Amino acid sequence: MKIKSIFFILLFLLFGNVMQADGKNSQLIIHIKDSHSGEPLSYVQIDIRNTHDSLVCFSDTAGTCQVELPDGEYDILFGLLGYDKLQRHIKIIQHQSLDISLSANTKELDGVTVFARKRMIKLSDKGIVYDISKDAGVQALNLLDAINHVPLVNVTPNGNITVKGSSAYSIYLNGKPYRMAQYDPQTVLRSFPVSTVEKVEVITRLDGRYDGETGDAVINIITSRHHFNNWSLTLNGNSNTLPKAGAGISLVGTQKKIDFLVGYNYSYDGQRNQPVESSGIYSTPDSYQQNTASGISDGKWRTHTLRTMMVFNIDSLNSLYVDGHAMIKQTDMSTDWSQTFTDRKLTEPLHTAFLSEHDNTAGTFETNLLYRKMFRKDKSKEHWMAGYRYTYNPDIRNFNQTYTDNTDSEQKSRNKTHGGLNEHSLTASITLVDNNAQFLQIGGKQIFRKGAIDTEMLLLNQNNEWVTEKDESSSLDQIHYRQDVSAAYASYSLSVKDFTFDTSLRWEYTHMKMLFPKMEEAGFSKTFGNMIPYIGISYQRGNSSLSLSYNGGMMRPDILMLNPFKTFSSQYKAEMGNPELESSYINTVDASYMTYSNTVFLSCGFTYKHQNRPIVLYPSYSEEYHRYLSQYMNISSLNDYRMNFYGNYKPVLPLSLTLTGDFGWYRMKDYAGACDDGKSYNITFMCDVSLKNQWTLSLQYGNYLNMHPIWNRSHSFNIYSCSISKSFLKNALNVRAVINSPFDKFTEIREQNLLPSFSGSQTNFMRARAFGIDITYTLQKGTHKEIKRDRTLKSDDQKTGVE
């Protein structure tokens, strides 16, 4: 590089001397920047030519080039990899300055428009914004598969999402919590066609504007606005051999002042003849019990997803946003177990059969109403906002068990729970200052949650009558639950040159009340307040950023964790909730570095997390019931040390290589003082190739070791897949074929239990090999128009009191 620079300097001096020999010289100062971001462009090749001579020079790191030329007329050609070439003809008669803006190029690869990376990525003081509408390689995908191409986000072939290696994230829609997607992100995001999404924002530094239970990051989905004068209709369908299938329809458009989106999606997920194995040994000086079991599972999961969104643009400053979302997930599953039980008290092993049948309904219903007022001077920035949200999460579970032993005696039981959680939220915020140097916002939120749980456990007696089963939790089979949360925050940031300083303070006050109608003396109420601070500093220069932050956070138990209903996976293994759970407080320190160019995107970071009273599934063994039971409980603490990295390299235009990973070491401490250490990691490699004639080939391989529950051990497993996609009819029709793990029939998911007196394991043989196809077709009416906010007040502003 030094030799090349010296060569060009000598060349410049040589030609400069030649040009100076012919009369009066003038100085030309050239400033070159990116037309989209306004950032200076370095190492731009500048060819200066006239009829007699030519000169080649390059812009410096500030995007500036200064030359001295004889007066006259010149043709100047500007060139930089990833940008459109530009030619200017100028006449020099005196010292002058020339401002040049280069546009990142959109290269046509046999019909596929490929944008330079700089047109798709924008760094912010909170994370990144990815313009997914400009990524031609993902337009044939659903949003779940497409966000795998968003920097910092990783989606495994089985659909699990992590952000910077963490699975503690929240999903937002147009800047507000999207609880339906949070409940089941795979189903909801798979139902989103990419054609309805404009940008995906990844927020990794969360200040007081976000709820304490938001997690480590936010994936904010920004839907398209004003893309068409009229409407766009998208149809999609998919199926594979697991079996899985799905279909959906989405309508997005603009009608006068109203932007709207309506969508419905149905998905089916099934399993047939899926093997499962489990074993356990309970051993004390006075007792010894052992069980082994093997089973075959069959199941089907049906999900209905409905979305409606509407924005009424009252004028250029005021808008009203209304949406409604619903998701209903129905589970119908059965497992037929063959079991063997051994006890010192038995003369011979007990051989039994156990049939477990599940019929569950879960999901969420949500609606939002938001009024926004923008700043008059900059209508792209929100001045104040007020909103209301209602959410309902049902919990309807029915379990039927049939037990048969080697004496042919049969016993049937029926367990069911019916409940749900209602939530009403009021929120408001006002931005007092928002300019290039400072940002100040204050806001508040009030949440009212009210839930009820009704559980019934029945046995079929000898008279063929269903009677109430009496066990240790029967007094808790009815619960009335209430939680009120009040929150207020102030958030301030200051930018000084390339540095941004952020600080915020959030105060949350929680009142919780739990009532048990069948055992009134067990009822209780709790009141507590928390201060959640945030402080961060980031340095951003050009396409690189470095940040360090500390923030607090909360984790509150949901309705499934609080419900003491027992879920049986086999006769000898069950799981249950705990109505006495407390919220957990989290302290997080995060340091990260990001940089990108047209060929490379690199991110790496370190995170330390200390969690007080974390909620975990705590294992125990009941010698009386011969049962291994996991119950949600608070333990003393969790310390988690984690490193993450994300690297993407595009050496040539058609090829994209991605390597992402996360490595963690953690220690859990229970209230008895005992510690359980563990490690986890995930490594994923992806390769995408854009071929001619609108073909795209993708490969993905991952090796994963999940974080294990306390006193358990997890085992690593591999998942890999390959896919090929093609666009037809000017990108209106997109077809994608995918094959998962073609050389493995099953993926073994194995967990071991390690307690002082009990050890056991369970292995689920998940079907791995599958072939599937996805089809998306978009039909539109109307012409494209530029996505640009109106910068002038409309005449009807007079009617709203704005003027």
Descriptive overview:
- The protein contains five helices and 47 strands.
- The chain has about 800 residues and is mostly beta strands.
- The chain has a 22-stranded antiparallel β-barrel. A six-stranded mixed β-sheet has the order 10-11-16-17-14-15.
- Mean pLDDT is about 85; it is low at about 5-20, about 110 and about 785-803.
Number of H/I helices:
5
Which percent band covers the strand fraction?
over 45%
Q: What value does the Rg take, in angstroms?
A: 31 Å
Arithmetic mean pLDDT: 84
From the spread of the alpha carbons, the general shape counts as: elongated
Distance between the termini: 59 Å
Going by helix content, strand content and strand pairing, the class is mainly beta
What's the quaternary structure here?
single chain
State the major sheet: 22 strands, antiparallel, barrel
Parts with pLDDT < 50 across at least 5 consecutive residues? 6-22, 108-112, 783-803
Give the number of DSSP strands: 47
Helix content estimate: under 10%
Question: Topology, please?
Answer:
Layout: H1 2-20, E1 25-34, E2 45-49, E3 54-58, E4 64-70, E5 72-79, E6 86-92, E7 96-102, E8 106-109, E9 112-115, E10 121-124, E11 127-130, H2 143-146, E12 153-155, E13 161-163, E14 169-173, E15 176-177, H3 179-183, H4 185-190, E16 197-203, E17 217-223, E18 231-240, E19 244-255, E20 258-284, E21 287-313, E22 318-343, E23 350-374, E24 382-405, E25 410-434, E26 438-460, E27 466-468, E28 478-496, E29 499-515, E30 524-541, E31 544-555, H5 559-562, E32 566-570, E33 573-576, E34 584-596, E35 600-612, E36 615-622, E37 627-634, E38 637-649, E39 655-669, E40 675-690, E41 695-705, E42 712-714, E43 717-728, E44 733-740, E45 746-754, E46 758-767, E47 770-781
Parallel strand pairs: 1-7, 14-17, 33-37
Antiparallel strand pairs: 1-4, 2-3, 2-5, 5-6, 8-9, 10-11, 11-16, 12-13, 14-15, 16-17, 18-19, 18-47, 19-20, 20-21, 20-46, 21-22, 22-23, 23-24, 24-25, 25-26, 26-27, 26-28, 28-29, 29-30, 30-31, 31-34, 32-33, 34-35, 35-38, 36-37, 38-39, 39-40, 40-41, 41-43, 42-45, 43-44, 44-47, 45-46
